[in-house]
Amino acid sequence: MTDPKRAAGVPATAPATAIAAATAPAGSIYDLGYRHYNGKRNGRGYAMWSLFVESFRGVWGLGRPMTAKAAPFILAGLYALPAVVQLAFSSVFAQRIAAGDQLQLLNYHNYFADFYFLAFLFCVAQAPELVCRDQRYHVLPLYFTRAMGRMTYAVARLGSLALSLFILLAAPALALFVGDVLMQSDAFKAVGDELPKALPSIPATALVAAGLASLSLAISSFSPRRAYSAIGIVAYILLMEAIPAALYSIGQTGGGSWTDKLFVFTPVTSLIGATYWFFGQPLDPQDFAGSLTSGTYLVASIGSIVVATAVLVYRYRRVPA
Amino acid sequence: MSEVAPVGLIAAFMEISRVTLRQLLGRRRTLLLILLSALPVLLAVAFRAAGETEVERFTRRIFDTITMTILMPLVAILFGSGAFGAEIDDGTVVYLLAKPVPRWIVIAAKAITALAMAILLTGSSTVLAGIIDMAPAGSDGVSATMAQLLAVVVGSACYVSLFLAVSLFTRRALVLGIGYMLVWEGALSFMLPGIANLSIRQYALGASTAVYKLPLQEVRLSAETALLLAGVLVVSALVLATWKLMRFELPGGSD
């Protein structure tokens, strides 16, 4: 312990004045003059870390009753299910491939495109969980008067949701990787072959997690009721998918060729398009109308993350505490 | 239980629906919902301006993708689960249950008010959008609009009564409703056509064929079947809700 007071020979029981407490760095602990606090002050970083850990546990319902765990674990399980099934039957597939069958196996690059609605549902269920109740029960002042600032609060919450989504999205990629390695006879060579195909999953998954987390948390922070936040997320995402598609369809026949540029505003389609960029795969013309490239979608997704994060931070600078 | 005079029942009904109305309509929330319902109308204006006035394009691009899959389910789920949800969340359901009013009156008042609100929002949006875009299509356009209105009414009735019942069993009725809408109606009914008999969207679209055959390929039920199944769903959901409300236990503790 290198407490400066102790080092200077001041008795540990020396009364710390209220002024000393007020001028102490970031970790302010209110001294009402009854019982003094002489312990370690962990400061802002530690407060942020604590909130981050608590939020992460909250997203998954850890340390809470089973009912709180149901939604996140069921959704994450369903999202990973197809990949896990492929892993479980990898030996069967391996025999079929050895026998010369052409199999339609799940791929890293279009897994999110196929099953995104489960990840989306995860956001709808869990993002309001993180931010709404603090506003509803007016406990935000308790956070904001301590070492925790408004921005720190927003960033910690966002980080925990993004990490949770990253885990949800990365689990099936890992299962696919293990499955594909097991399907081949030479495991060491298989790892070498698979890694270049699998590695782009990491940045792609990080981008998708950040995109979904920032958007859904920014929307949920505007309502103290979880129900309305959930409706807000669904309405925003579905409408922003449907409106550009509708306008594009009139643009095609009505002569407005610029209307395909509107697809940069689609939240999920942009994220899917951006993941294709990491894998270097061509966009599937069935899912992607118009002339936009995956690079454009990547820029659109990053822009959406920046805007949504800014909106979230702005909201927490203004929210009445 | 002592007999309540019919006049008393009507008064109770009116009072409960008045209270429900006020719970469902917050200021900002109502504004957002009106904006949401204005979207099909705005898109219809855009379509009209671009000269896209055929019944088929409108039905597919606006009615099917926006009104039927997003607007109608969202509004109906919100109102259906909110009719009791707000009372249970705030604890005011105690006052409702303490009154000597038959429970079925409470359910009926809540359900009818929520349904009326949902139809007012989505129905008017459907009719306006239909008239704006499909007026040049003549009588076809008019009957298509009527068919779409019927679909919206049937769909709203099913969603409102189903999720009103669900909201008495769980506090997460709204998230369940959104899950149903996205997973069951959105993903599974495309993959498994056999679900048609268990899909509110199919009931609504099927019922609309009684007025006019909308140019959508995936209408799988006849008008009679659809209306019958929708009726069974609405009645059984409301009966279930009444049964649950008669033995409703006040949730203890926090959320």
Overview of this protein structure:
The complex is a heterodimer of chains A (321) and B (255). Chain A has two domains: 1-41, no CATH class; 43-241 and 313-318. Chain A has 13 helices and no strands. The longest helix of chain A is centred in the middle third of the chain and has 34 residues, at 150-183. Chain A has helices at 4-7, 18-23, 43-60, 66-88, 90-98, 111-136, 140-144, 150-183, 187-198, 201-220, 226-254, 267-279, 294-318. Chain A is mainly alpha-helical and 321 residues long. Chain A is globular and about 80 Å long. With 255 residues, chain B is an all-alpha fold. Chain B has one domain (6-246). Chain B has helices spanning 6-24, 27-49, 55-90, 93-98, 103-134, 139-169, 173-191, 200-208, 223-246. In chain B, α6 packs antiparallel against α8. Chain B starts with 5 loop residues before the first helix and ends in a 9-residue tail after the last helix. Chains A and B meet through α6 and α11 of A and α2, α3 and α7 of B.
Brief digest:
Chain A is an all-alpha fold and 321 residues long.
Helix/strand order of chain A, N-terminal first:
HHHHHHHHHHHHH
Helix content of chain B: over 70%
Write down the overall geometry of chain B.
globular
Provide the low-confidence segments of chain B as ranges: none
Largest interface (CB < 8 Å): A-B, 30 and 35 residues
Classify the beta-strand content of chain A into a percent band.
Answer: under 5%
Mean pLDDT of chain B: 86
N-to-C CA distance of chain B: 32 Å
Note the main attributes of this structure.
heterodimer, A: 321 residues, mainly alpha, 2 domains, 13 helices, globular, disordered N terminus, B: 255 residues, 9 helices
Task: List strands and helices in order, with pairings.
The complex is a heterodimer of chains A (321) and B (255).
Chain A: H1 4-7, H2 18-23, H3 43-60, H4 66-88, H5 90-98, H6 111-136, H7 140-144, H8 150-183, H9 187-198, H10 201-220, H11 226-254, H12 267-279, H13 294-318
Chain B: H1 6-24, H2 27-49, H3 55-90, H4 93-98, H5 103-134, H6 139-169, H7 173-191, H8 200-208, H9 223-246
Helix pairs in contact in B: 1-5, 2-3, 2-5, 3-5, 3-6, 3-7, 5-6, 5-9, 6-8, 6-9, 8-9
